[in-house]
Amino acid sequence: LYQDVAQIVELTNVPIKGILETAILTDTEKRLAAEICLDAGVSYLKTSTGWFGGTTVADVKLLYGITKGRIGIKAAGGIKTVEQAIALIQAGATRLGTSRSIKI
Fold this sequence. Notes:
By secondary structure, the chain is α/β, with parallel strands linked by helices. The protein has 4 helices and 4 strands, in the order αβαβαβαβ. β2, α3 and β3 form a beta-alpha-beta unit. 28% of the residues are buried.
């Protein structure tokens, strides 16, 4: 996985976002995937596509704890309220992905 991601980063020379689908991964798998993506040079980690569940404050905190602000974190999936959006930003999200941006 590392080699594939690193090759994409190197060959494209554009910001690459790693999508982790945190709703279906264990914390151990999330840590491993985040560390691989970080070491491979991705620009952002995205918590999910929203297909398998939404983002959580706990997942954003976990990813932020691993990345320590070195890359962006995009919280996405199931963000429905302004309170939830604020909590995700406070947890370390640098971007939000939501289909409810006008409502929020």
